[in-house]
Amino acid sequence: MSIRKTSDLSASFSPQRRDEIGILMSEFDRMIEQQKEFQTELERMVKERTVELSTANDRLYQEIKERKQAEEEARKSEEKLARSKRMESLGLMAGGIAHDLNNILSGVVSYPDLLLTDLSEKDPLREPLEMIKDSGQRAADVVSELTLTLHKI
Asked: How far apart are alpha carbons 120 and 126 in whole angstroms?
């Protein structure tokens, strides 16, 4: 006699007898029915658990995606903040330089004016002093434009 495992639960003994063999056959039928119910319940539980796991997996995937997006946005914000700080530092430095240059240039622009008021129109120093004054004024204008450009940034 050979015993083999099978998942085929279609066998049915349907006993016609009322003796011990009939009782045994009835018990086999009952066991097969229980096994079918157990298998059906197990399949239902596996399907439910598969759906739960699939849903949890989808949620996890979405959370990971959202976290990556948030991290990318945070990285971009940090880059923008760092760039803003660099620009602010550059602006402060340029503003300080512009202030210092304006202080220096104020003498180059204003002293020739003072000297020119005392000179006659034909004085040979008049032309060089006016060139110094004009050059100083052009330099002051360049510094002013630089300052305005930096404030726009």
From this structure: 8
φ/ψ of 11, rounded to 5, equals: -65, 140
Determine the 3-state secondary structure of 81 from DSSP: helix
What pTM value is reported for the model?
0.49
As a whole number of Å, the CA-based R_g of the chain is 48
Helical pair 20-118 and 126-152, crossing angle rounded to 10 deg: 160
Residue identified by tokens 């002013």 is 144
Nearest residue to 96 via CA among 86, 106, 88: 88
Residue 152 has a CB neighbour count (10 Å cut-off) of: 5
For residues 153 and 143, give the distance between their C-alpha atoms in angstroms, rounded to a whole number.
16
Single-letter amino acid code for the residue at 145: E
How far does Cα 16 stand from its chain's mean position? 76
Highest mean pLDDT among 37-51, 111-125, 135-149: 37-51
- Digit-coded pLDDT (tens) for 55-110: 999 999 999 999 999 999 999 999 999 998 998 888 888 888 888 888 888 888 88
End-to-end CA distance of the chain: 94
Q: How many residues are given for the chain?
A: 153
